[in-house]
Amino acid sequence: MKKDIYRGSLFLFVNVFLALVTVLVLLTLINGLNVDRAIDWGQLHTKKFALLTGFAFLLSCILYRSQMFCTFREQAAATMTNNRYLRIVFVLLFIIGSSFALHGILQFFQNGLNIDEFIDWIQGKTKIYLLGSVFILFLYFFFLSLTGRLYLSLILSMGVTVVVGLTHANKMTFLGEPLYPSDFKQVTHIAEVIPMVVGAFSFWKLLILAFLVVLVIGYFFIIYTQLNEIKTAWWTRGIFIALSIFLFYSFFNYPKTYVKALAEDSDVKIIRWNQPSNYRDNGFVFGFLSNLHVDAFDKPAGYSKKKIEEIANRIKKKAESKQPARQNTVENPNIVFIMSEAFWDPTKLENVTFSKDPLPITRDLMKKYSSGSVLSPTFGGGTSNVEFEALTGLSMRFLKAGSLPYQQLIDQKEFIPTIVSELESREYQSLALHPYNKVFYKRNRVYDTFGFNEFLHMNSMKNKEMSGPYISDEAVTHEIMDNLRSKDDPVFVHAVTMQNHFPYAADRYNKTSIKVSGLSSVSNAELETYVEGISQSDHAIGLLVKELERLKEPTLFVLWGDHLPILGQNKAIYEEAKYTEPYNPKVELQKFSETPLLIYANYEVPKEDLKVMSPAFIGPTLFDLAGMEQPPFYTFLEEVKSELPGIKPGLLINQEQKSQFALSKKQQQLLKDYQMLQYDLLVGKQYSSEILFK
Questions:
Q1: Rounded to two decimals, what is the model's pTM?
Q2: Under 8 Å between Cβ of 655 and 613
Q3: Cα–Cα distance, 611 to 337 (Å, whole number)
Q4: Would you call 429 helix, strand, or coil by DSSP?
Q5: If you average pLDDT over every residue of the chain, what do you get?
């Protein structure tokens, strides 16, 4: 039995070795016995090299089974069976080789499945690749300690590696952001996420992916059955689990362990302010690890109770001396927030033609009432981060890249002052509404922290009519109106829609009412699906306004889009439509951040051009237009907005709507105070809460 095991092992390793040596010798002969030139040729002609190696492998397999190699096979297998040290060497070489292969898979996904970039990175970052491979050993040791089987552990490790790598590659493709450790906080919602991602792939891509999965499984099944299995003793498994724990701790805490020195010697240079570059330069392993133990919010220098109270009291004093800009003509009107999923104006794609305007109602309302644009802190996803800004008045700019405040910060607090708590202090009832899974982004817990009286979700809503795969915006409209009519006290309703969520498959709706032209047929079809969805949303907005006009109670309605839609992989449709600005990153960032903003009222309120503003300023802007008394914190936000109406990671916009300017001393101080107060409310002791809020 042992002889069969090692005969099978030799079959695999000897033939791989013979194939590589044969091709290398052949290339060396062709290149005038110059080994360096032979290696360079293999790097420059990767596909040809792989094809030659594959052919050589098949040839060596045939020869290996010939009579000529029978004696060698039997002697080698017998030697390995009887020689303990050879067996140990074989197992160690197999484990080390596996770690290099597994790390290579991860890095291949990191390089966007581009073999040339993959090879270039390994050449330029060889030390980082070797050190990262040592980290991958912990995963292999872990499975080896559990199963005690050499080949099965490789199969399981490879399965995990492929899943992580594929998830990372897809996130980079659609959102332009790498996979962060914080993303795993959403792992419990994987059942909801998979259909969203899978729906973005064409039938043929899914078919090819399924074929590759079957091929890989079949390949490993053959290896597993043909090579039998090499089992490890219980005491060996104990050593492997100890090594696994040691490596796990060393790398997951690498800034505090010996790995830090190794990383520095390997030229690992963490780039925290640009995470795509961080992952690109340092590889997936150290890009991921560098975000593992990073707090979402660093403590600002000088944070103390005395400092916070000094800032808060100064703001309160200024707020008390400020005269109201407008008289409050209506006491405590209803307030309705609708953060519309991926709501954007596609007619901004100038070289694309639409058979009719997809947003006629919204466009007309924006002409009649206060309107402008929201500067979303995200692109294509991260809805909860936009919602976080709108409800709290705080900014994503001060948090680390990849932060999810709902999961990382707010979930750990019993209370955070928000527009919800502010309105409830004025005897408002509050209702949160989201036509999807209530635990997504931990909204069920976060809304409790914010102080919502009630949370309606896909399982508790009465109106559940579908449009495509999600509950329609029209159903959300009916749900809002039912609740407004049924309550006697003034109501604050905060609704987050789902109808226009990515992906936009061509068969999402039975038919589309607007034709799109000017792009490729595939892009036209995807864009038509998106346009049909927002056209239906536009109709739902019109329906809501009509119902509000019939409502006796005075009501304010605020609508904005959470972010731009994902159109094509790597913004392919935007690029095809010439919407990108490759030579001006700040201009492009602003273009990919602006979504429509509308503030409507069924009674007389002033009309203003709101221009571009961050979601954090929606609350104070609404209070100002309605003539409602503002808490001191909103007075402070109004001052910040007067200087810097647009604030997001990587971008500031001033009152002249410019993104390229030098910050004045006043602007610098406002940002410092803003950051200090935000830390106090989110992470610190909330010294400012009683001073700045009712």
A1: 0.74
A2: no
A3: 19
A4: strand
A5: 83
**φ and ψ at residue 595, rounded to 5 degrees:** -125, 160
Domains (range + CATH), the chain: 83-289 (no CATH), 305-692 (3.40.720.10)
User: Which residue has 């209530």 as its token pair?
Assistant: 438
* Block residue for tokens 């705080």: 394
Is residue 1 very low, low, confident or very high in pLDDT (cuts 50, 70, 90)?
very low
Q: What are the Cα distances from residue 444, in Å, to 24, 96, 181, 475? A: 61, 46, 22, 21
d(CA 375, CA 659): 12
Residues 466, 472, 474: CA angle, nearest 5 degrees: 125
Count of all residues that appear for the chain in the document: 694
- The answer to whether residues 500 and 534 touch, using CB atoms and an 8 Å cutoff, is yes
In the block, residue with structure tokens 């947003």: 359
Q: Does 2 score more than 50 pLDDT?
A: no
Which of helix, strand or coil describes residue 237? helix
In the predicted structure, residue 38 carries a pLDDT above the cut 80? no
Residue 466: burial class (beta carbons within 10 Å; 0-12, 13-18, 19+)? exposed
Listed residue (484, 447, 473, 497) closest to 334, CA to CA: 484
**For residues 161 and 154, what is the distance between their CA atoms, to the nearest angstrom?**
10
- The tens digit of pLDDT for each residue in 247-276 reads 778 887 777 788 888 888 888 887 766 677
Contact 279, 109 (CB under 8 A): no
